[in-house]
Amino acid sequence: MKRLSQIAVGKKVIIKSFEKDDIFIKLMEMGCIPGEIIRVEQVAPLGDPISISVAGYNLSLRLNEADQIFVEDSE
User: Fold this and answer.
1) 30 lies in a domain?
2) Which of 27, 44, 69, 74, CA to CA, is 20 to 30 A from 15?
3) Residue 23, exposed/middle/buried by CB under 10 A (0-12, 13-18, 19+)?
């Protein structure tokens, strides 16, 4: 498994789990739940934040938030 912060732009991945429970509720409310397919849309010029497509909309995440999401390839 990789962290979302390590995924290249344009790649689709599946959320598997979260590193810390305190961020889980915040991300779940935004549609980031285990089993959800997400796509990395953009990375800011300095690498933070990143933009992902999840549940039909775009969401910006700080790099430290993306670093707490474990994902695996969707193919």
Assistant:
1) yes
2) 44
3) middle
Domain span at residue 19 reads 2-57+68-73
pLDDT in tens, 34-56: 999 999 999 999 889 999 999 88
Number of residues that make up the chain: 75
Residue 53 within a domain: yes
Look at residue 9 and tell me if it is in a domain: yes
Residue 63 lies inside a defined structural domain of this protein = no
Predicted confidence (pLDDT) per residue in 56-67, tens digit: 899 999 998 899
- Amino acid found at 50: I
pTM over 0.90: no
